[in-house]
Amino acid sequence: MTADKFGKICGIAALVLLAVGLATGMLVAPRERIMGDVYRIMFVHFPSWVGTAAGYLTAFVASIAYIKTRDFKWDYWGQAGAEVGLLFNVTGLITGALWGRPTWGVYWTWDPRLTTTAIMAITFAGYLVLRAFMEDPESRARAASLVAIVGFVNVPIVYFSVRWWRTLHQVQSSPETVDPQMVWPLRAMMLAFLLLGVFMMTRRVMLARLRGEEEMEMVRLEVARD
C-alpha cells in the first residue's frame, strides 16, 4: 500500500470518527458536575495534543533518519511532521485558553505546563522560519533536522511538567477518573486527530517532494549553465 493510499484511508476514517466523537461528546456525554457544559471543549483540546505528539515525533524520527542517510525523503517527512505538529500545538493552546477563562478566570497564566507548551510551539515555528530563510537544500535540511531533534526534547517535559512541578494545571486524567460516557467520545476524537494528522502529513510530504524535485532541477540547470 502506498503512502498516498494509506493517507486517504486515514483521512476517511478520521472524518467518520470526528462525526461520531463530536456527536456523542456534545449530545450524549453528560454535563460535568462542576464545570457544566464548558468541559466539552476537552473533546478538541485533549485530542489536539495527540496530533501534536504524532507530528513532532514524526519530525524527530525523520530528522534522525535524514542526518544518518542524507536522503531527502526524510527531510520531507520532517517538514511535514513539524508543520502538522505545530498546527495541532496552536489548536491546543487556543482551546486551552478558551477553557481556562471560565475555569481559572484567566486566558493565560505562566503555569509550567502552559509555558513549556508555548516554548515547544515557538521552537517548531522557528524550525519553519529557518527553512524559509535557507536556500541551499542540504544545509537547510541538516540545520532543520538539528532544530527538530533539540525541539523534541521539550515534548516529554511538557507531558511530565504537571508531575514534576506544583502547577495550576491538573494532572493527566485516566478512564478511572472520567465518566464512561465521556471516555468513549474522547477516545474516538483522539484517534480521529491521530488519523487526521497522518492524512495531513502524507499530503504535505507529497507537496514537499514536488517542490524538492523542482528545486533540485533548478540547481542542476544552474550548474549546467556554469
Can you offer a commentary on this structure?
The protein has 226 residues and is mostly helical. It has one domain: Up-down Bundle (Four Helix Bundle (Hemerythrin (Met), subunit A)), CATH 1.20.120. Helices cover 81% and strands 0% of the residues. It contains seven helices and no strands. The protein has helices spanning 3-28, 42-69, 72-104, 112-133, 137-152, 154-164, 180-225. Helix 2 packs parallel to helix 7 (180-225), helix 4 packs antiparallel against helix 5 (137-152) and helix 4 (112-133) runs antiparallel to helix 6 (154-164). The radius of gyration is 20 Å and the shape is globular. The mean pLDDT is 89.
Question: How are the secondary structure elements laid out?
Answer:
Blueprint: H1 3-28, H2 42-69, H3 72-104, H4 112-133, H5 137-152, H6 154-164, H7 180-225
Cα-atom Rg, whole angstroms? 20 Å
Annotated CATH architecture = Up-down Bundle
Based on Cα principal axes, name the global outline: globular
Helix and strand string, N-terminal first? Answer: HHHHHHH
CATH topology: Four Helix Bundle (Hemerythrin (Met), subunit A)
Mean pLDDT: 89
Number of separate domains: 1
The largest β sheet comes out as:
none
Keywords:
single chain; 226 residues; mainly alpha; Four Helix Bundle (Hemerythrin (Met), subunit A); 7 helices; 0% strand; globular
Q: Would you summarize the structure shown here?
A:
Residues 12-169 form the Cytochrome c assembly protein domain. The protein has 226 residues and is mainly α. The protein has 7 helices and no strands.
